[in-house]
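Tip: read the tokens left to right.
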């Protein structure tokens, strides 16, 4: 690292950076989500948005990041960066950051990002907010976010409208509260961001063509590594892809009288739609579904075309994970269930009676085409 680096010299830092993860020469979906959100933050700050891409001979994939909003991409190529290692990636990232000094640095909360973020933050002597679900810089935008996502009386609060700190919001206390964290004394402001929560911009080829590719100076040798990768073994495990699904049928505590039957009904409905089955936290905590099915603040944040909630009351933690779905259909026996507040279509009834009717209606509509 640059020996003159001083994380408390806030005025020396500028620009928003995004760590762009690649695996085997392929960019990850989280990269495009973070570049899209980073574009908004950079616009609010009036600075450039820069991607940081590490690997071996990865120049060919860098321009694509410009299509989602990056002004430039810093590309670090080295044979020792071909396979991810904490030692190699942390060393190069911290060296480049200490030289070029971004004011904000975003990392996807993937397995790699969760490993890399804390290591870099500690070396750079700055803070890190982990597993963020919302980011703001502009104070008016943050106030509008609070109006819809909290019970705070924002109009009675005092605000510093010139505050340029990155406001990083994440679930706390097991998802029962949302906490916003700032890092006012050190830079860069660092956050790992939960995959799937940020909306991806439309790709723009002209912006991709205009994106500047820069190769920053860095050094890396085998002496920088405490470990050696001798083999990479992939294990295949079938997990439900909630984030990429267009149709999700989720079940909640309402299936408790016949858990297996309720899940089967959801699977049949999802199959007719070409979708997948999700669940509320209650279903995962009860062991009815595995954790990869969970939708909510402590699970996956989803944006499907259609989200069907069967027997889900609509606790705020669950609504936060699915309220941006294009169409929400709720089935619940309780006509005052909070889920009906955000549903486009609400059916007050027994899910064990209503769900087969929905499945049959969809099957008949498909057959008539």
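Filled-in amino acids:
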């Amino acid at each position: 690292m640059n020996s003159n680096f001083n994380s408390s010299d806030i005025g020396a830092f500028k620009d928003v950076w995004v760590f762009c993860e690649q695996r085997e020469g392929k960019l990850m979906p989280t990269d495009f989500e973070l570049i899209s959100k980073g574009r908004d933050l950079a616009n609010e700050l009036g600075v450039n948005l820069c991607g940081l891409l590490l690997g071996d001979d990865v120049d060919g994939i860098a321009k694509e990041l410009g299509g989602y909003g990056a002004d430039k991409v810093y590309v670090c190529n080295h044979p020792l960066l071909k396979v991810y290692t904490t030692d190699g990636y942390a060393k190069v990232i911290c060296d480049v950051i200490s030289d070029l000094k971004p004011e904000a640095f975003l990392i996807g909360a993937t397995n790699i990002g969760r490993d890399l973020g804390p290591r870099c933050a500690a070396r750079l002597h700055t803070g890190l907010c982990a597993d963020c679900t919302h980011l703001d810089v502009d104070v008016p935008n943050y106030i509008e976010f609070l109006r819809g996502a909290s019970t705070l009386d924002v109009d009675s609060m005092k605000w510093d409208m010139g505050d340029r700190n990155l406001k990083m919001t994440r679930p706390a206390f097991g998802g029962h509260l949302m906490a916003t964290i700032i890092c006012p004394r050190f830079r860069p402001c660092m956050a790992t961001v939960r995959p799937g929560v940020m909306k991806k911009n439309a790709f723009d080829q002209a912006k991709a063509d205009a994106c500047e590719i820069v190769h920053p100076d860095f050094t890396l040798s085998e002496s920088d590594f405490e470990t050696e990768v001798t083999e990479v073994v992939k294990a295949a495990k079938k997990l439900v892809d909630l984030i990429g699904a267009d149709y999700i049928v989720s079940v909640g505590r309402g299936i408790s009288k016949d858990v297996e039957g309720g899940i089967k009904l959801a699977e049949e409905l999802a199959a007719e739609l070409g979708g997948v089955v999700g669940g509320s936290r209650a279903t995962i905590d009860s062991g009815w579904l595995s954790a990869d099915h969970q939708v909510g603040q402590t699970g996956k944040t989803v944006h499907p075309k259609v989200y069907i909630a069967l027997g889900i009351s609509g606790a705020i933690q669950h609504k936060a994970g699915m309220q941006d779905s294009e169409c929400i259909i709720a089935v619940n026996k309780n006509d005052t269930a909070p889920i009906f507040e955000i549903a486009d279509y609400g059916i007050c009834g027994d899910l064990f009676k209503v769900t087969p009717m929905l499945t049959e209606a969809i099957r008949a509509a498909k057959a008539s085409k």
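The chain is about 30% helix and 20% strand. Residues 10-224 form a domain with the Rossmann fold fold (CATH 3.40.50.620).
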